[in-house]
Amino acid sequence: QVQLVESGGGLVQPGGSLRLSCAASGINFRLYAMGWYRQAPGKQRELVAVIASGGTTTYVGSAKGRFTVSRDNAKNAVYLQMNSLKPEDTAVYYCNARVEHYSYWGRGTQITVSS
After folding, report:
1. Taking a C-beta distance cutoff of 8 angstroms, is the pair 20, 93 a contact?
2. Percent helix / strand / coil, the chain, rounded to 5
3. How far apart are CA 26 and CA 57, in angstroms?
């Protein structure tokens, strides 16, 4: 059974930092590209960052320069370090594991950026 479990969400002030974690089980983790997506209220889910199985990283939009995605294949975990957080970063953040036509999602963790 595949499980992706996100953690590390919460309430943070503008300009603050958070580190999200995603623990994976039930997959051969090192083979999967791992992505972080987010969905704000009333908006579509969007890609934030992805790290390929080989470690190549890609960032989308406002994540560039502020967020860092990393993975630890020994721990079957992927992380998202988020700095200089803005109110517009408020969303539910989801972890995704993808290889070929296989794609799995976590249940998400809420990030709220507010003073």
Report:
1. yes
2. 10, 55, 40
3. 23
